[in-house]
């Protein structure tokens, strides 16, 4: 009798309220794994030992894929309170030996560096100093000349571009060429790159304005400074992206040391002066230090992926004791819809540190998120949409 | 008398040779079969050290003994050997497993003996040991539960495989029992089989399948469980259990992390679809426990649109959320609720502190329910914001409530780890006022260790009676402020304060005194220059450095005005604010958005009696240039916030009048500076402000 009742109930429910059961919301399925307890704030993903599997690199260690259980030491880093002088881990074959090295820099050392991958040998990586440039609040890695190799731009004043040197044979030569841009602009907290004015060149964006690139980005006198806005203590990077799909690139900016995530709408009518109109994305979360655009849900459109940098300035920043989080925002015609991947206190949840990485680490077709930070190193494996 | 007592007594009378580890297994077996309790003890101690593969076959017959002591000792030896089998290595362990399995399968043995053998087997098996021989006993109704328990505890691949395989051959009732076993494992083996049982027509079996999936924090499983829950008729015996399972998996997903939005949405679906009041409330509480500001929005709506228990649950849940922006939402909601209902929101309101919250909380405290809720919340989650309101409660509360407050305060001071130590001081002061006489000395002792911002007159007298040389700065400061000027003790207190300022970090002291009602006394104690003339703002940008003086250097003498790019600038007199800083934002006349990329100048005239080695301690937002008597001393073009005493600049002050001129730049954000004078020993300098 009860079985009969069950099926009758099912039938009736489906007939009369079938639409109630159907749920229009779709969510990505993530599996959260703790990779390490170390509190380095940067991480990247690349095949360190050329075994065909992607590995995770973060601070003093790299974690061997695909299991990511075995760690190998890269170097020793001196702690300064709960910081380490290592605010990037960008993979680049600097010396042309076929193994990807790591380009980094930090606030206290004031020096741009690269660490040489020893290849198959199990030994510490040698650190090479490139140049003392001043405090480095993370570098920007941006392909200014469309060569396929990004240039390295620490946020300094004057504006410096470090371009990888090549031998005559076209192999990386183990060093960088420094280019000094002659401009009154630059500096401040925050940097980004993109084609702000739509002329095909990659411009640089700073907290206090943007630098228009000449046709040749190495024409050091050709950059022009436009102090058209004031972004405060901005994220690294500042994203150049057409948010409202009106053909003009806008800016997406996080507050690195305060509350807020914003976008600045570029408005320009013909030859009229360019205007930047500020819009809120999220007023209630703070320390959006790193923000990135990736197609995380394979819908063909870029989403804004970001999170909190825990203890960016110990507990001095507004909101520093608020819950941590990892988020992605779907962007549609100027509207941002937040999806929260992880959220909660620091002993349970994750932020994204100062330099996180998005990559399909397990080659299942869906991009995963590697989230470093003072709360630990986490991997959020993406398995695609939760089937309904 | 227990076993260990027997052994202890025996050890007093017998020599160590009775516990000779070289005694043979045969001899020890004889001891096991004797009537002597001591022999049993010896047998247990020593047989447990021998090779289990040798011992176990020999002791198994004793499991059938009619003598309960022999049986009990044999059982213990068997478990000891099995438990320690790891240390013997793989082969011994494997062989032992086989021996135990064979022994278990021997139907001539008694049921109790076979149960003992089964318990021992759990300790010896690993993924290499095939457990298929036990399958028929899983099907056997008499043995099923015992075998199931053993397989779950063994938790090896063959054990899980056997449990899963049995699902193919058992009837529904038996399957349910197996599924309850699978529920206790980490992860779900044979998930396809279990999932297929979700659509069984047997509600008990469906519920068991749901239960077995609910321990794994998988959104995929959660989706399937949700479908079962929605389709389960309300009259079903398992309706509540299924929804409970869905709540369980939702919470597991949130605790594990990685699917927050999905799980929060699932809570919302639970409360939308479940007809069970308790389930709905549990889902609402889950939203409160794990939610953020967006969830607060949802719960606020729920409070407005719901009635009865659901409304109460939503209000409680709302109070649990601690994200930024909640206070505003709660305040908006309060406008639509009665005072009694607003009381439910107190824990949430009291996580922040502003004028509107103060007014709302004071209103709520005028009701008996408000008082009761406040006192209970303070006990459960004491934080500093509660302390300010306790003075409102001092009257009109019962003795029980008063005692609860006192207990909460003691709990707060003993467990509180907040960085703001002023709150602890406040709590000790309240304890001093409210606690019974025998507890007051402890409150006073705490008060001396932690800073406070308010000293009552009776407290003041008590402290002064005791002597004050060793008191901490904040307490001294309060005493200094509270004493009338003509009180001769004031001079002594001033000396003590200046001494402490000299020795301490001013940043730390400022964090304490900034809330004091006697703050006005502080700048002169610390040597701050309090009177300035300002001129500006002039246009400036970071990139151009700090080179231009805009003609101000020529306008210092005689306080002349300045003409720059067709605009006239005049000097304006200002005093420092708060603890001794100058807020330059006033020069922007309220137009904060235009208050960037500018600079201004500040001039002070000070008089000293004799020349001495001095320092100007400066903090500025942003950069600065400093001239003393027309000489450029230092410059820094920097983007920073103001930090007291950040720069220590040696300066030469002449006897008589001295002019100190600062140029302060402004990039964006805050714009202020603070400057004080100290001697070479870091003691605040004695000087007069002249004619400003």
Architecture overview:
The complex is a heterodimer of chains A (388) and B (692). In chain A, strands 19-18-17-16-20-21-22-23 form an 8-stranded mixed sheet, with no helix packed on it. Chain A is globular. Mean pLDDT of chain A is 91; it is low at 2-22. Chain A is mainly beta and 388 residues long. Chain A has 1 helix and 31 strands. The longest helix of chain A is centred in the N-terminal third of the chain and has 20 residues, at 2-21. Chain A has one helix at 2-21, and strands at 28-36, 44-46, 55-58, 61-63, 71-73, 79-80, 83-84, 90-92, 101-105, 111-116, 126-132, 139-142, 151-154, 159-166, 172-181, 191-194, 203-206, 209-212, 224-226, 238-241, 250-254, 259-267, 275-286, 291-294, 303-307, 312-315, 324-332, 335-344, 357-359, 368-371, 377-385. Chain B is an alpha+beta fold. Among the domains of chain B are: 402-521, no CATH class; 527-689, Jelly Rolls, CATH 2.60.120. In chain B, the strands form 3 sheets. In chain B, strands 1, 4, 6, 8, 9, 11 and 13 form a 7-stranded antiparallel sheet that branches. In chain B, helix 11 (172-183) packs parallel to helix 13 (203-213), helix 18 (293-305) runs antiparallel to helix 19 and helix 18 (293-305) runs parallel beside helix 20. The chains are: A mainly beta (388), B alpha+beta (692).
């Amino acid at each position: 009798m009860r079985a009969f009742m069950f099926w009758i109930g099912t039938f009736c429910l489906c007939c009369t309220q079938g639409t109630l059961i159907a749920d229009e919301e779709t969510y990505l399925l993530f599996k959260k794994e703790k990779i390490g307890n170390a509190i380095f704030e940067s991480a990247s993903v690349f095949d360190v030992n050329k075994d065909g599997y992607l590995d995770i690199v973060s601070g003093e260690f790299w974690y061997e894929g695909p299991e990511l259980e075995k760690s190998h030491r890269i170097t020793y880093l001196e702690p300064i309170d709960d910081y380490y002088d290592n605010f990037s881990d960008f993979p680049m074959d600097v010396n042309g030996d076929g193994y990807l090295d790591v380009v980094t820099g930090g606030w206290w050392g004031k020096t741009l560096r690269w660490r040489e991958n020893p290849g198959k040998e199990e030994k510490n990586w040698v650190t090479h100093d490139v140049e003392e440039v001043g405090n480095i609040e993370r570098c920007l890695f941006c392909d200014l000349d469309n060569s396929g190799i990004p240039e390295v731009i620490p946020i300094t004043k004057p504006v410096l571009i470090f371009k990888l040197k090549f031998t005559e044979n076209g192999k990386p030569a183990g060093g960088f060429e420094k280019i000094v841009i002659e401009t009154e602009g630059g500096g401040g907290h925050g940097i980004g790159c993109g084609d702000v004015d739509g002329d095909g060149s990659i411009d640089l964006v700073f907290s206090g304005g943007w630098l228009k690139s000449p046709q040749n980005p190495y024409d050091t006198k050709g950059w022009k400074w436009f102090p058209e806005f004031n972004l405060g203590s901005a994220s690294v990077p500042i994203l150049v992206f057409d948010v409202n799909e009106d053909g003009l690139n806008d800016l997406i900016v996080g507050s690195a040391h305060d509350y807020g995530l914003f976008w600045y709408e570029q408005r320009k009518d013909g030859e009229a002066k360019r205007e930047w109109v500020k819009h809120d994305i999220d007023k209630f979360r703070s320390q959006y230090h790193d923000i990135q655009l990736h197609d995380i849900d394979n819908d063909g459109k870029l989403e804004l992926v970001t999170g909190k940098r825990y203890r960016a300035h110990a507990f001095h920043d507004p909101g520093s004791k608020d819950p941590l989080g990892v988020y992605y925002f779907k962007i549609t015609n100027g509207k941002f819809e937040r999806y929260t991947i992880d959220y909660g206190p620091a002993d349970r949840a994750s932020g994204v540190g100062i330099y996180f990485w998005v990559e399909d680490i397990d080659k299942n077709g869906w991009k995963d998120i590697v989230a470093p930070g003072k709360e630990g190193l986490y991997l959020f494996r993406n398995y695609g949409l939760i089937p309904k | 008398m227990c076993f260990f007592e027997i052994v202890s007594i025996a050890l007093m009378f017998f020599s160590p040779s009775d516990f000779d580890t070289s005694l043979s297994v045969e001899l020890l077996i004889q001891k096991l079969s004797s009537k002597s309790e001591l022999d049993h003890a010896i047998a247990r101690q020593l047989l447990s050290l021998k090779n289990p593969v040798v011992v176990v076959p020999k002791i198994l017959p004793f499991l059938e003994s009619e003598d309960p002591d022999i049986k009990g000792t044999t059982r213990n030896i068997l478990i000891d050997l099995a438990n320690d089998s790891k240390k013997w290595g793989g082969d011994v362990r494997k062989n032992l497993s086989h021996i135990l399995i064979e022994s278990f399968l021997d139907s001539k043995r008694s049921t109790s003996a076979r149960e003992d053998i089964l318990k021992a087997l759990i300790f010896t098996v690993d993924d290499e040991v095939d457990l298929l021989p036990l399958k028929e006993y899983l099907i056997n109704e008499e043995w099923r539960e015992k075998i199931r328990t053993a397989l779950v505890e063994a938790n090896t691949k063959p054990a899980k495989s056997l449990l899963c395989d049995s699902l193919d051959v058992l009837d529904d009732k038996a399957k349910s029992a197996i599924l309850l076993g699978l529920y206790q494992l980490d992860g779900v083996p044979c998930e396809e089989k279990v999932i297929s049982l979700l659509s069984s027509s047997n509600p008990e079996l469906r519920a068991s399948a749901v239960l077995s999936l609910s321990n794994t924090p998988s959104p995929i499983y959660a989706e399937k469980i949700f479908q079962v829950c929605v389709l389960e008729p309300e009259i079903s015996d398992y309706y509540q259990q299924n929804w409970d399972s869905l709540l369980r998996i939702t919470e597991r997903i949130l605790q594990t992390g990685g699917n927050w939005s999905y799980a929060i949405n699932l809570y919302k679906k639970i409360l939308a679809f479940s007809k069970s009041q308790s389930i709905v409330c549990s889902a609402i509480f889950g939203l409160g426990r794990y939610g953020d500001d967006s969830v607060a929005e949802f719960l606020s709506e729920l409070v407005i649109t719901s009635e009865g228990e659901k409304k109460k649950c939503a209000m409680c849940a709302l109070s649990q959320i601690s994200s930024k922006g909640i206070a505003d939402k709660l305040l908006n909601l309060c406008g639509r609720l009665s005072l009694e209902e607003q009381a439910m929101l107190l824990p949430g309101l009291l996580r922040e502190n502003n004028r509107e919250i103060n007014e709302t909380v004071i209103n709520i405290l005028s009701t008996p329910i408000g008082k009761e809720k406040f006192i209970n919340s303070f006990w459960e989650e004491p934080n500093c914001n509660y302390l300010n309101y306790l003075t409102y409660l001092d009257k009109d509360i019962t003795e029980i409530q008063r005692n609860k407050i006192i207990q909460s305060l003691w709990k707060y001071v003993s467990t509180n780890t907040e960085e703001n130590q002023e709150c602890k001081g406040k709590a000790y002061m309240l304890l001093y006022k409210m606690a019974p006489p025998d507890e007051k000395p402890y409150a006073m002792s705490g008060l001396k260790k932690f800073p406070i911002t308010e000293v009552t007159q009776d407290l003041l007298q008590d402290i002064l009676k005791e002597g004050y040389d060793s008191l901490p700065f904040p307490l001294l400061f309060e005493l200094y402020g509270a004493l009338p000027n003509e009180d001769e003790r004031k001079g002594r207190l001033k000396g003590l304060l200046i001494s402490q300022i000299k020795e301490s970090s001013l940043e730390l002291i400022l964090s304490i005194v900034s809330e004091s009602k006697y703050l006005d006394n502080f700048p002169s104690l610390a040597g701050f220059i309090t009177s300035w003339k300002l001129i500006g703002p002039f246009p400036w940008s970071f990139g151009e450095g700090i080179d231009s003086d805009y003609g101000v250097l020529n306008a210092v003498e005689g306080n002349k005005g300045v003409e720059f790019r067709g605009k006239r600038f005049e000097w304006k007199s200002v005093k420092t604010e708060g603890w001794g800083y100058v807020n330059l934002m006033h020069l922007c006349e309220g137009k904060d958005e235009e208050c960037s990329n500018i600079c201004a100048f500040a001039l002070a005239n000070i008089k000293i009696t004799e020349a001495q080695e001095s320092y100007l301690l400066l903090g500025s937002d942003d950069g600065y240039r400093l001239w003393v008597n027309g000489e450029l001393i230092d410059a820094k073009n920097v983007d920073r916030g103001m930090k007291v005493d950040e720069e220590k600049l040696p300066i030469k002050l002449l006897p008589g009048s001295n002019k100190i001129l600062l140029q302060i730049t402004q990039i964006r954000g805050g714009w202020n500076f603070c400057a004080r004078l100290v001697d070479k020993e870091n003691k605040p300098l004695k000087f007069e402000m002249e004619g400003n």
